[in-house]
């Protein structure tokens, strides 16, 4: 599991701070992309899924201040689920 970003950054993200989102994005994007790519075995699909994940993070940012105790765990579980859902949907 990845190093946890400082909780003050996550708190600022939850408050809608775009610069905090940028820090989170720049740190996690390459890691999440690679994690998803290993699951879906496609760079293009991994790119799409990873972009969707970060859109959802921004849309759900308020929960990170209260409901989520480990952002790193949350984003990796979210990424795994998105990748597996994509594989299931593509197999139908």
Rg calculated over all Cα atoms: 13 Å
Largest sheet: none
Output the helix-strand order: HHHH
Fraction in helix: over 70%
Low-pLDDT runs: none
Shape: elongated
**Structure summary, number of beta strands:** 0
Count of DSSP H/I helices: 4
In percent, how much strand structure appears in the residues?
under 5%
- Secondary-structure content class: mainly alpha
How far apart, in Å, are the first and last alpha carbons? 31 Å
Query: What do the pLDDT scores average to?
Result: 91
Strand and helix map with partners:
Elements lengths: L6 H8 L3 H23 L2 H17 L11 H21 L1
Helix pairs in contact: 1-2, 2-3, 2-4, 3-4
Briefly characterize the structure.
The protein has helices at residues 7-14, 18-40, 43-59, 71-91.
Question: In words, what does this structure look like?
Answer:
It contains four helices and no strands. The mean pLDDT is 91. It has 92 residues and is an all-alpha fold.
Primary descriptors:
92 residues; mainly alpha; 75% helix; elongated
């Amino acid at each position: 599991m990845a190093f946890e970003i400082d909780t003050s950054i996550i708190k600022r993200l939850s408050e809608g701070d775009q610069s905090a989102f940028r820090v989170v994005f720049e740190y996690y994007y390459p890691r999440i992309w690679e994690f998803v790519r290993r699951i879906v075995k496609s760079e293009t699909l991994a790119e799409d899924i990873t972009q969707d994940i970060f859109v959802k993070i921004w849309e759900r940012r308020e929960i990170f201040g209260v409901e989520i105790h480990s952002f790193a765990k949350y984003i990796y579980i979210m990424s795994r689920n998105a990748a597996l859902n994509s594989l299931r949907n593509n197999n139908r």
